[in-house]
């Protein structure tokens, strides 16, 4: 019998003001994307912005549906669009901003498990880490320098 331990490291910034201009720009795009969410059922808006190695920035927001499971999270809307539009590009980083419309979220809100699995696929495919900055409406910003910090023990193609 043996125990396996995996360490996860996050960096927490007090506010976007601590971050360099290029990261703030990406976070701004995520915040703008958030306002375009279609979230009439949850009143919870999420925006994601992805910087590619070809310099393009792709954004997405959550899109809900009266048939609830048919909706899609912001992170997957953005990453699938990036994969569809720029299949050869590598993802450098993703910024995410999420908030409830009923009470502004002031702590960093990480992507859900399904989105982590989707991001893992692209990190494995490109063999380079994807940086993930995530926050609420405002306040602290968390940075995971690789998806692996957010989803240890991820499922990958090696077992297929
Ligand atoms: N949502 C996201 O867009 N990303 C996540 O990582 C978690 C949840 C969306 C899905 C749904 O539209 C709303 O937030 C509430 O769950």
From TrEMBL:
It catalyses: 2'-deoxycytidine + H2O + H(+) = 2'-deoxyuridine + NH4(+); cytidine + H2O + H(+) = uridine + NH4(+). Gene3D superfamilies: Cytidine Deaminase, domain 2. Residues 21-158 form the CMP/dCMP-type deaminase domain. Zn(2+) binds at residues 73, 112, 115. One of its GO terms (cellular component) is cytosol. SUPFAM superfamilies: Cytidine deaminase-like (SSF53927). GO terms for biological process: nucleobase-containing small molecule metabolic process; pyrimidine-containing compound metabolic process. Its cofactor is Zn(2+). Keywords: Hydrolase, Metal-binding, Zinc. Its EC number is 3.5.4.5. The keyword Transmembrane helix does not apply. One of its GO terms (molecular function) is cytidine deaminase activity. The active site is at 75 (proton donor). This enzyme scavenges exogenous and endogenous cytidine and 2'-deoxycytidine for UMP synthesis. Belongs to the cytidine and deoxycytidylate deaminase family. This is Cytidine deaminase. It comes from Aestuariibaculum sediminum.
